[in-house]
UniProtKB/TrEMBL annotation, chain B:
Lineage: Bacteria, Pseudomonadati, Bacteroidota, Flavobacteriia, Flavobacteriales
Top-level taxon of origin: Bacteria
The name this protein goes by in its record: Sigma-70 family RNA polymerase sigma factor
Record InterPro entries: RNA_pol_sigma-70-like, RNA_pol_sigma-70_dom, RNA_pol_sigma70_r2, RNA_pol_sigma70_r4_t2, RNA_pol_sigma_r2, RNA_pol_sigma_r3/r4-like, WH-like_DNA-bd_sf
Sorted UniProt keywords: DNA-binding, Sigma factor, Transcription, Transcription regulation
Family per record: Belongs to the sigma-70 factor family. ECF subfamily.
Location of the RNA polymerase sigma factor 70 region 4 type domain: 131-169
Domain RNA polymerase sigma-70 region, residue spans: 26-95
Amino acid sequence: MAKIYSNASPKQHNLNPKDETISFLLNYSKALSVINYNKLKFEALLN
Amino acid sequence: MKTELIQDAELVTNYINGNESALSVLIERHKQKIYSFIYSKVYDRDVTEDVFQDTFIKVIKTLKRGKYNEEGKFLPWVMRIAHNLVIDHFRKNKRMPKFHNTGEFSIFSVLSDSTLNAEKVLIKDQVETDVRRIIEELPEDQKQVLLMRMYQDMSFKEISERTGVSINTALGRMRYALINMRKVIEQNNIVLTN
């Protein structure tokens, strides 16, 4: 009798980043300030 | 106004103009696709988290610096950044690969530290001292040839020139030096192994 081969369907992981990561990114964005001065750009992280 | 009706391009413009919540919408909208893409390459949750974070840090910096050209391709642009960071990760890993010790197999069972431990260093020093003592017992002409050959790395041609004898004589003295050393070692039951 022929063996039945079947592809196991790939498990659906919860493929999402952690909330902490998202939170960090949003806070980072709020804190980041780009200052233009004499054709130069400075990145400053505001506290 | 429903946020799903706002196109990416408009959200990007709003964000650049100072609307921080626009970024939140963009991340929420695309996070699963980007995260899944990264995971499909690296198959490591921690690494995926890091790459995802680094991707959006680059996105944020570029947007805030005003260096983003809106061509209606926000998501492909972000995916390209993620893709390049995945490549960077593999390149870095290749240079210094990490090995995770599992419960069953430890890498230290096949890797060994070849440097001598303290005991072996002591034994090595003792052996070298014993060898020097044995050499001192040799007749002067044999000792001279042996020291030049083994400790000064001289060729027999150089030895013959220095000592004023033929090469064959130098070779003979070396041979007798070794024979005599072996005799002394055997007669005195000296152990010279580490």
